[in-house]
Amino acid sequence: MPELRGKINKNITKGLESGQLSNSDLVQIIECAGDLLNLQTRSSYAKSQGISYNGAKKFRQNVNLFGATFVIDND
Questions:
Q1: How many CB atoms lie within 10 A of CB 61?
Q2: How far is CA 70 from CA 7, 23, 45, 55, in A?
Q3: Can you give the pLDDT at residue 43?
Q4: Average pLDDT in the 14-28 region?
Q5: CA dist., res. 57 & res. 46, Å (int)
Q6: Ramachandran angles phi, psi of 52, nearest 5°
Q7: Which residues contact 25 (CB under 8 A, 6 or more apart)?
């Protein structure tokens, strides 16, 4: 699987450098990945699930992206 990840990263980089992909395209790719991961901020996730912020922090998969913390819930 790491081979596929490398190919995807390489092709996105090539696409941006060659002008085949725009910033808008890259945003759409990020949004698609976020949808697949079901990313939500901790506070939004806690509210939508009816749990405390600390419950989301301690008992869910958390990831830091772009200086913000998100919960991954794609099970």
A1: 12
A2: 26, 22, 8, 13
A3: 97
A4: 97
A5: 9
A6: -80, 160
A7: 15
Name the token pair of 64.
């830091």
Q: Could you report the per-residue pLDDT of 47-69, keeping only the tens digit for each?
A: 999 999 999 999 999 999 999 99
In this structure, the chain runs to a length of 75
Q: Which amino acid is at 59?
A: F
CA distance 72 to 62: 6
Residue 72 C-alpha from the chain's centroid: 8
- Contact between 62 and 70 under an 8 Å Cβ cutoff? The reply is yes
* Residue of 75 and 9 predicted with greater confidence: 9
* Domain definitions of the chain by residue range: 1-37, 39-75
Query: Alpha-carbon distance 61 to 75, whole Å?
Result: 11
